[in-house]
Design a protein that fits this description.
single chain; about 180 residues; alpha/beta; Pyruvate-ferredoxin Oxidoreductase, domain 3; 7-stranded mixed β-sheet; 6 helices; globular
């Protein structure tokens, strides 16, 4: 098993932390993992992406040009990474702010209205966990138990009281993801 993922959007959407939680979850599951962030100097509001590789065998390089899965959270990322999904791969996106929807017929395309769902939940910071839930529903490569362990490892202890809310957000994403 080897899963090569790009998560891309604006800085401030939790792109890097979503990748970090996924990476820690893989570590908790005894997988080989790489986590490679990329972001501009402007951080919040600028584009950010992270590549994560989870594998049961050693990973030769963290550098990727094609991906098994792309998680897309803004139009610039859609324009840049839709074509980089391998045939037969998966593209998940939040339609909020997307003006040109994915058009490929050789991949599975899913939508998760994470911005809308996080507003209904009353916590905009739950956005990235809703997206993570959508991904995990489509590709359950790490168990929920290990995701919770990954959350505990990646967020400061002073914020551990938010873990139940994050778990609920992941469950919402799992319930609300739509295959198009």
């Amino acid at each position: 098993m080897k899963e090569e993922i790009i998560i891309a959007g604006f800085g401030g959407q939790g792109v890097l932390s979503m990748g970090k939680i996924l990476a820690y979850s893989g570590i908790m599951q005894d997988q080989e993992v790489t986590w490679m962030p990329s972001y501009g100097p402007e951080m919040r509001g600028g584009t950010a992406n992270v590549t994560v590789i989870l594998s049961d065998k050693p990973i030769s390089s963290p550098i990727l040009n094609k991906f098994d899965t792309a998680v897309i959270l803004n139009q610039q990322s859609m324009d840049k990474f839709e074509g980089a999904v391998k045939p037969g791969g998966l593209l998940i996106y939040d339609p909020n702010g997307i003006t040109r929807f994915p058009e490929r017929k050789d991949i599975t395309i899913c939508s998760i209205a994470a911005a809308e769902e996080s507003a209904l939940l009353g916590n905009a910071k739950a956005f990235n966990m809703i997206v993570l839930g959508a991904y995990l529903k489509m590709k359950p490569i790490v168990s929920m138990e290990n995701v919770i362990k990954g959350l505990k490892k990646s967020i400061p202890e002073r914020h551990h009281h938010l873990i139940p809310m994050n778990e609920k957000a992941i469950e919402i994403g799992m319930e609300k993801v739509q295959v198009l």
